[in-house]
Amino acid sequence: MTNTFRALVLTQDEDRKTHHALQDVAFSDLPDGDVTVKIDYSSLNYKDGLAVTGSSPVVRSFPMIPGIDFAGTVTASSSDDYSEGDNVILTGWGVGEKHWGGYAEYARVPAEYLVKMPENGTSLDAMTIGTAGFTAMMAVMALQEHNITADDGDILVTGASGGTGSMAIALLAELGYSVVASTGREELSDYLKNLGASDIIGRLEPSSRPLAKTRWAGAIDSVGGDILAAILPEVHYGGSVACFGLAGGSDLNTTVFPFILRGVNLLGIDSVMCPSDYRVQVWEKAFNTLTPAKLEAMRQIEPLSNVPQLANDILAGQVRGRIIVDVTKY
Ligand code: NDP
Q: At what angle do helices 276-289 and 123-145 cross, to 10 degrees?
């Protein structure tokens, strides 16, 4: 074994401009942690786009290896919970932001950041799900915990052709829900129908009406901003909207009327600091719900060397479904 491994490394200059380079990194430079993992795959998420391009200050210290998720095999462990050879998954905990992440052949992390691979799970499938699918699964579970059933009516998914949106459609459809996909790319209608959307609509127009004709039993929103504000007045009495994204904006200009006159619930979803025991349930449910055909339909595997270009593409809303990063190809 050599003393170095390959990684995408971010640095920042004195003008706070972010630079990236594929380079060899010494094992001795890996951060503290009780488990070392040989990474098979990472993935590309919206936050990775922000980190690699430097367009938002998500990276807290430099040099940084970005990549907010990974799956691989334990090569060394001083934790009682993991042994050499165990297959593991990591999402969140600030990895790729303040702790070196997944765009590398190796990572070292605290044991509590890891989840054991569910039985029959593979690294490729785990990263097809990745942070996006994990978050979409949390959103679906939040709707279920608020008693939104498949009999209640249509569920709206916004940002439908992106990573979280694609995952939400596939998960909801497999669980028997009727899913309406809202997208700015209607040319991807066949892709969205193949994932399980029963109807495709354009992006919701901004609305200033506090209440409107109800259309949605529930919604999963990755876009935020004016689009989230346009969803709330259209939600059925007692319906729920799970919200986790800001691809379209972080402001939310709305009124209290959907909440106080229709009992609508706005459910915040955070995957980063999600407690460990809940993570295990989320992963098991995601693996048990998504079929191999759906996972295959959503993924595109790319070499590590393509990440900088793809980081620009995801911020421009040009990525379809899930990009899997093969860290052994650079
Ligand atoms: P993607 O880029 O893959 O998907 C976002 C989708 O939103 C795009 O594909 C596009 O879909 C739509 N979109 C993009 N720009 C706009 C715009 N200006 N107005 C309206 N729609 C737009 O990103 P991800 O799925 O990885 O992430 C989506 C969001 O969720 C991000 O903000 C991300 O940070 C957040 N997120 C939050 C998590 C949490 O724990 N809270 C975890 C994971 C993600 P289309 O072309 O179909 O309209």
A: 100
Contact 227, 204 (CB under 8 A): yes
Per-10-residue mean pLDDT of the chain, 330 residues long, equals: 93 96 97 97 98 96 98 98 98 98 98 95 98 98 98 98 98 98 97 98 93 98 98 98 97 97 98 97 98 97 98 97 97
Query: Does 245 sit in the ligand 1 pocket, CB within 6 Å?
Result: yes
- Residue linked to tokens 């990745």: 130
Query: What string of DSSP letters covers 140-197?
Result: HHHHHHTT--TTS-EEEESSTTSHHHHHHHHHHHHTT-EEEEE-S-GGGHHHHHHHT-
Our answer on whether the CB atom of 164 is closer than 6 Å to any ligand 1 atom is yes
* Separation of CA 232 and ligand 1 centre (Å): 18
Q: Is 254 in the pocket of ligand 1 (CB under 6 A)?
A: no
Query: Which residues, 6+ apart, have CB-to-CB distance to 288 below 8 Å?
Result: none
* pTM reported for the whole predicted model: 0.98
Cα distance between residue 273 and residue 271, in whole Å:
6
Task: Tell which one of 223, 246, 325 to mutate to probe ligand 1, the residue whose CB is within 8 A of the most ligand atoms.
Answer: 223
92 touches ligand 1 (CB under 6 Å):
no
Report how far residue 258's alpha carbon sits from residue 233's, in angstroms, rounded to the nearest whole number. 6
